[in-house]
Structure formats: C-alpha cells, structure tokens
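Troubleshooting log. The previous run stalled partway through. Resubmitting the same two chains, unchanged.
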Amino acid sequence: MKNKIFSSLLKYIVLAVILAFLLFPIYWVLITSFKSNMEAYRYPPSFFPVAPTLDAYIKLFEVNNDFFVYYKNNFIVSGVTALITTILAIFSGYALSRFRFKWNKWAVALLLSSQIFPVVSRMISLYDLLGDINLINTMEGLILALIADMLPFTVLLMVSFFDAVPNAIEEAAFIDGATRGQILFTIVTPLVKPGMLAVGLYAFLATWDDYLHAATLIQTDTLRTLSAGVALRYLGELSYDWSLINTISIIGTVPMVALFFFFQKYMVKGLVAGAVKG
Amino acid sequence: MSRPLRKKLIPMKRSTGDIIFSSLLLLPALIMTIVFIVVPIVDSVIKSFLDFRIKNIISGQPGEWNNFANYIRLFQSQKLMGAIIATFSFVIFVVILQFIFGMILALILNSNVKFARFIRSIMMTPWVVPTIISALIWMWMFQPQYGLIKYFVGLVSGGEITNFAMLNNPKTALLGIGIAALWKQIPLTTLLLLAGLQNVPDDMLEAATIDGAGKTRRFFDIVLPYLKSVIKIVISMAIIANFKQFPLIWTMTGGGPDNSTTTLAVLSYREAFVSNNLGSGAAVTTIWMLLMIVVILIYNKLLGATDID
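Second attempt completed without errors. Output:
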C-alpha cells in the first residue's frame, strides 16, 4: 500500500517537472512581454509583472510595424500553400489509395525518400533555377517551393484517410452511372473532410514555421514572411531589444496556438494517422 | 510512414479510363515533387563538382568543373570533421532524450492520471511555437545578463557561479540548443507514443496481471512489442528532423562560439549563402545526404526493416 502511494506520488512529481519544462518558458515570455524594459532587465527577476504594461505591444504597432508586413505576407503564403497542397493531396491521395498500378509503388517511394533530403541542398539549386524562370524573389516562387515541400507528407496522410472509406459506396455510384470524377468530388471527398482539415492545418502550421525557403528565395524586405523577416530585421545587432522580441514571440505564436486548440481534434487525428497507423 | 496500399480494388475494370484518371490525379503532385525536389537535389550534387558562386548566377555563366576542389578543400580544413561531429552529437543527444522523456510522459498520461486529456492538449503548445520563436524563447531563458537560467544557476550554486552563459561557452552551447530542440519536439513524440499505447489491447494486460506479471514485466513483454512499429517511426522522424535542424541553431548561435555549434546544416548554409560559394555549400550537402542515407540504412537494418511497399 505504502509502495503504491509512493509510486503514485513519484508519477505526479515527474509529470509536474516535465510539464514545467514544457510550459514555463511560454509563461516566462508571456509575462516578460507585459513588463517594462526596466523591469524585464531587473535582477533578480520578478515572477509576476509588478507593474504590468502594454508598452511593448504599443511600440510594436507604432514603431516596428514592418513586423505586420511580414505577418500579413505569412498569412498569404501559408494560406495559399495550405489550400493548393490540400487540393493536390486529395487528388494524389485518392489515386494512390484506390487504383493499384505498378507505378504507385514508385510514386510512394519517391514521396517518402524526398522527405529525408536537406532543404539547404534544394535551396542552393532553386536559387539558380528559379532565377532562370523569373520566379526568384517572388511570392509565387516561394509558394511553389513550399507546396512541393509539403506534398510528400500530406499526400501520404491523405492516402490513409481515403483507405478508411469503404468502397462499397463508390461501387454503387459507379453502377448508377456516375463518372469517376463525380464519384471523387461529390461522393468520396465529402467523406474525408477530417482528413482535408488535418492536411490543410498541417500545411499551414508547417509553412508558418518556414525559415530557410523564405530566407534564401526572397530578397525584398517587403515580401518576407515572419521567421525570415524577424530574423533578418530584428536579430542583426549584437544586443537585442528583448521586450520587443518577447512581444514578437507572443504575437507570432498566438495564431498557431489558437488554430491548434480550435481544430485540435482533427490535428491530433491527422498526426496520429500519418505516423502511427501506417 | 510507409504503409501498405489498399489490397482490395474497386471492381472497375482496369480499363484505359482508370489509367488515365489515376495518372491525371497523380500528375500534379509528382510534377511538383520532381521539379522542386528531385531536380534541385540532383542539380546540387552536380554543382558540388563545379566552381559555382553567386557571381555565376548574376552573370549567367555556367559553373566550371574544378577537379573536386570543393571536396578537397573541405576535407583539408578542420571544418567538415568538426561539423560532422557536432551534427552527430546533437542528433544522438536529442533523439535519445526525446524518446526517453516522450515515453515517460506518454506512460504517465496513459495511466489514469487526473486531467490526462487536458494535459495532453496543453503539453502540445511548444510544438506549435514556430522554430525561430522557440529559439528566441530559449535565448531569453539563457540570456547571459538577465536570463532566468543564470538566476537559477546562481541560486543553486549558492551564489558561486555568477557568470553562467550557456550559449556563449563552446562547451555548453550545443547542449543549450539541444534543450531548446527537446522542448519543441518532446510533445509530438509523446502524442504519437501515447496513441500507440492506447492501441495496446487491455485484455492482454489484464491477463498478464492475473498471471502475476509485474509492471516492468508487462511493459517489456507486452507493451513494447506492440509499440515497436510506432517507436520505429517516432525515432526515425526524430533522427531526420534533428539531422536537418537549421533555423534553431542558426538563430541561437549562428554556429558559434568558436564553431562549436557548426553542424552540417550551418556549414552548408554558411558556405553557400554567406561566403556565396554555392559549389562548396553543395559539396557539404552532398556529404550530408550520403551520411543521412547511411544512418537510415543502418537504422533500418538494426530494427528489422519493413519498407516502402
């Protein structure tokens, strides 16, 4: 009995320590963003803002509003990428799930292996190749490169969602004279809505996180996305303006946290389907 | 992520219509993958044998074959070996700890702990924090004058260590980045392992309990074998992600101090886009890709490969 209480206690202590490691840094950045610069640099630090202030946020809006250009660009780039990726993933996912031809195996092998190669090696070459077709330093070029980056994982994810739909429904529709296109778009696609959401959200989150593509393929400051813009504009000097950076951290993260918690059910299902059931 | 393709087919005839329809559906994704991934990778391998710099792009001149000069220069300098060692240290450290802590947290969350569902959702937060911002969060934690970690180290050491600067010391900088990487990656590992644990059939566990198997015994004899495929995927995802890690390291230290955090990713980026020597950067990524392929082959061999089909 004593042993049981002890092991249960130990369990909760370990849980608390791991959770503190995962969550405390976020709390720390959040409260720092509400401190004045004076208080943020105080030593020893205060664990709760003594005089909470919105100064850092106001300064971000008024003085450093280039940030919001990057922010807007990133919404455009991630949104378009997520949309096109989802559509292409539906097409290929359905083809790989329902039709079994000998080249399917090669298509899957191609998609799987393209995930392991380093992004830098692609960028070295795309920097040159996109220049040849006048897509360097454009959002279109960046979006195309990002879609290609997202496709392997999302297509394979979509395959697993299509696999879960029984094909009796399609057989019936086929006998009733529906075309292959009608079957896909009006009958099967509505059944994989959770999969579409999972794929779209994954692509949005993952491209929101992109740094390397934007940092190498875009040179014009006003076309930059969040990570590249922040890194190149605010992290250049030796001493950082920490209250500004903590504020940027919070505003740059909030949409992702909101998206994740709002659509958690689909995201978790998608992530698990992509990895575990495979 | 390899998975068997559906065995049972729609009973349509494998007619020409099917072939056309399915290839039309597959085509856009395949073209994108080939144009933006396969071709660039092959092209970068070719460029690694050329004298190819930014000025070649500007003037439109093709690179010139330079008798392996990129490779020779890399092998002669200490940089390449240093980067390989840094990369492997980083990958091994992060992957092992990520797995251990992810497994511990998953086991705890799977054991009737209170608020398990709620904890499972909030613990995912670091995973959605963008990598650059994760780097900034930990740079603020490790900040050498006002940082929280410095304060804690001062407290724990009874005021003896007053100049603790994780990222500024060549001995600890890579460790500091490793901690940030663990912070961001433990949540997904936990989520996937937890999903795997929930697939372990309860009746097997109950039967084993009735037969008198203790907790440890049940874990190693029932739970682990069931989890094997999930574990294999989780670890290979972790190896690939950490092998490729760039923005975290680049933001936190830029490869320094004293090149102690210059991994292959940092070295290739610096050669290609800071020194503007694309050929040399491509040589680094080519070596890097070869190493990665070798690691994955060894890994698959060790774990008894189940492969693509």
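Takeaways: Residues 157 and 275 of chain A are 8 Å apart (CA to CA). Chain A touches chain B through 110 residues (CB under 8 Å).
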